[in-house]
């Protein structure tokens, strides 16, 4: 039985609401306990599991890399899959960066980039190449490569040139001008609950919600 919104109108509904909450309580306690114990990554994976999101995360580099105008190519024995629209290639810049107001975070991000212009390209399994947008700021309390409070530069495909869902990435190419040292690289793609529903019921979803894409926002 899954948790669902409950309109309480009588004693029977109240009992059902309490029963639903009782089912959810152990799962919520598990996530909170993991977080309190310092197991941020485990807690995050648990929350992803319970929320219904599917994630493909592949770490491509865990050691510092010096990027230059000559492209650096990275591959992985673990498949890099395009699960949905929320797909990005992230260059880890720093750790120990607490979450701050946007203005301060923007300044920290700019300092970490040092004025470098970064170019990222993915090579798909069929040999086609897609150049991603200029990286934007990314932050994770539980680091993907480093320990915690991880600041990254994350690049995604533009809305007009989407990475095809279901595709497998063969390799990625990175370059920067002037040189930029990064402390790690990872790939991440997510399939959200709404995207799963759209895939399962494309015609119904198209009628009910004609624009659910993140690219459709203006």
Structural commentary:
- With 218 residues, this protein is α+β, with helices and mostly antiparallel strands.
- It has two domains: 1-52, no CATH class; 53-191, Jelly Rolls, CATH 2.60.120.
- The protein is 30% helix and 33% strand.
- The protein has five helices and twelve strands.
- The strands form three sheets. It has a five-stranded antiparallel beta sheet, with helices on both faces. Strands 3, 4, 6, 7 and 10 form a five-stranded antiparallel beta sheet that branches. It has a two-stranded antiparallel sheet with strand order 2-11.
- Helix 1 runs antiparallel to helix 2 and helix 4 packs across helix 5.
- The longest helix has 26 residues, at 11-36.
- It is globular.
- It starts with 10 loop residues before the first helix and ends in a 10-residue tail after the last helix.
- Mean pLDDT is 76; it is low at 1-50 and 205-213.
Beta-strand share of residues: 25-35%
Work out the oligomeric state of the chains in this entry.
single chain
What is the CATH topology descriptor of the largest domain?
Jelly Rolls
Structural class based on helices, strands and sheet pairing: alpha+beta
Reconstruct the topology from this structure.
Elements: H1 11-36, H2 40-51, E1 54-61, E2 65-67, E3 72-74, E4 80-81, E5 86-94, H3 102-113, E6 117-124, E7 129-131, E8 136-142, E9 148-155, E10 168-177, E11 180-182, E12 184-191, H4 193-200, H5 202-208
Antiparallel strand pairs: 1-12, 2-11, 3-10, 4-10, 5-9, 5-12, 6-7, 6-10, 8-9
């Amino acid at each position: 039985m899954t948790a669902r919104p409950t309109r309480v109108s009588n004693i029977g509904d109240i009992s059902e609401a309490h029963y639903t909450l009782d089912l959810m309580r152990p799962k919520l306690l598990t996530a909170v306990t993991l977080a309190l114990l310092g197991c941020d990554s485990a807690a995050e994976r648990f929350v992803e599991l319970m929320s219904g999101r599917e994630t493909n995360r592949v770490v491509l580099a865990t050691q510092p890399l010096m990027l230059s105008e000559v492209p650096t190519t990275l591959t992985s024995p673990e498949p890099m899959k395009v699960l949905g629209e929320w797909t990005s290639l992230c260059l880890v810049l720093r750790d120990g960066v607490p979450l701050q107001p946007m203005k301060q975070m923007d300044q920290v991000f700019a300092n970490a980039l040092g004025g470098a212009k970064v170019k990222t390209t993915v090579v798909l399994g069929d040999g086609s190449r897609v150049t991603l947008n200029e990286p934007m700021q990314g932050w994770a309390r539980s680091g993907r490569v480093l320990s915690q409070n991880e600041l990254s530069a994350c690049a995604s495909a533009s809305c007009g040139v989407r990475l095809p869902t279901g595709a497998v990435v063969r390799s990625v190419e990175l370059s920067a001008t002037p040189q930029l040292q990064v402390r790690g690289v990872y790939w991440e793609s997510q399939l959200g609950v709404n995207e799963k529903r759209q895939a399962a019921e494309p015609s119904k979803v198209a009628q009910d919600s004609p624009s659910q894409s993140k690219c459709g926002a203006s």
